[in-house]
Amino acid sequence: MKVMEIRDEWSADNICVGERPEPEPGPGELLIKMKAASLNYRDFVMCQRGYGRRSGTLPLIPVSDGAGQVVTVGEGVSRVAVDDLVCPIFGQTWISGPFREEYWSGLLGGPLDGVMQELMVLTEDGVVKAPRGWTPVQAATLSCAAVVAWNAVVHQGQTKAGDFVLVQGTGGVSLFSLLFAKMQGAEVIATSSSDEKLGKLKVLGADHVVNYKDTPDWHKTARKITDGMGIDMVVEVGGAGTLEKSIQAVRPGGKVALIGVLSGAAGKINLGPVVTQNIRLQGITVGARDLFEEMVKAIEFQGIEPPVDENLFAFEAVGEAIKSIPKGKHFGKICSSFE
User: Fold this and answer.
1) d(Cα 203, Cα 200) in Å, to the nearest integer?
2) Which of 3, 37, 133, 229 has the smallest set of CB atoms within 10 Å of its CB?
3) Are 28 and 77 a contacting pair, CB within 8 Å?
4) Is 159 within 8 Å of 184 (Cβ atoms)?
5) How far is CA 188 from CA 118, 256, 265, in A?
6) Residues 6+ apart with CB under 8 A from 238
7) DSSP 8-state code for residue 210
8) pLDDT (tens digit, 9 = 90+) per residue, 204-262?
9) Backbone angles phi and psi of 65, in degrees to 5
10) Closest CA relative to residue 210, chosen from 176, 164, 261
């Protein structure tokens, strides 16, 4: 079968077409014909061996998020059936509860081979059925970005009707966070440096938009929107470059869900307000399969659609697509259809 794999040295430039034997499912396993994939910033970091020894070894099939159709099931499989559209879960052994050290070894797209392959064999515990009526491309958006957003906004964030939630930028996590916050009845403030993207954010449901390039003190604008009370939650994807402003934007007792470090992982942060204002700073690392399945039920009930960038990439172009991630030209999830 055809795969895309990183060979010889860690780099997106070294992702090449390869051939591997067709896998066969054993007891409790599924054979899945992969139909689509979507990218996360993690895939860019992984191609540079950015997670050190936890990145795995070469050759490595990249990309953690995808969707495919079950073509064969092994003995004893009961959770899914032939022809079901399923999503491989990010942490193959993370079924429920909080993240633990032992789950690192079961992450797809590094250290385990990812979804850029024609066929995959996984255990039945390692997949979730896609929302009813969704296409493979739509389903491929869910495993990391959507589960992160659900965990941050709904599960740990406990967002409720009337809350103010601020989301940063127009990547997958931010847009899913916007959709889930609106699902909970929250009022959403969204930031971007592009007026064109701000217009799209309004269409998706953002109640207020702020161009952070034109308004560098966007945290002050956010507080004005709340009549000086402050934001209930900020979904923080910027990291060191934006974290201090996020802390200043939230109300006493508010929350900052720290998900990404796009503007840097290290920097000086004034932690005084975190203590004196009783602010909760919570790191979010995706979520367990239980959260994924809970999220799918909510998606089906609410009928939301995933934010997919209009430019799909070809299976063989995954390396170039991964290299494009830091440029930030996309709106929503960067996806590939294998057919």
Assistant:
1) 5
2) 133
3) yes
4) yes
5) 39, 14, 26
6) 168, 169, 246, 260, 261, 262, 263
7) E
8) 999 999 999 999 999 999 999 999 999 999 999 987 778 999 999 999 999 999 996 65
9) -110, 130
10) 164
What is the rounded distance in angstroms from the CA atom of residue 112 to the CA atom of residue 46?
12
In 154-207, where does DSSP find H-type helix? 172-183, 195-204
What is the C-alpha separation between 112 and 45, in angstroms, rounded?
Answer: 15
Query: How many CB atoms are closer than 10 A to CB 163?
Result: 21
First to last CA, the chain: 15
The tokens of 286 are what? 């995706």
Q: Which amino acid is at 33?
A: K
Show Cβ contacts of residue 26 under 8 Å, excluding neighbours closer than 6 positions: 74, 75, 121
Q: Got the DSSP string for 16-32?
A: EEEE-PPP---TTEEEE
Q: Which amino acid is residue 268, in one-letter code?
A: K
Distance CA 314, CA 296 (A): 27
Residue range 101-131, pLDDT digits in tens: 999 999 999 999 999 999 999 999 999 999 9
Whether 127 contacts 32, CB under 8 Å: yes
Residue type, 138: Q
The half-sphere exposure of 271 on its side-chain side, counting CA atoms within 13 A, is: 4
> Side chain identity at 218, as an amino acid letter?
W
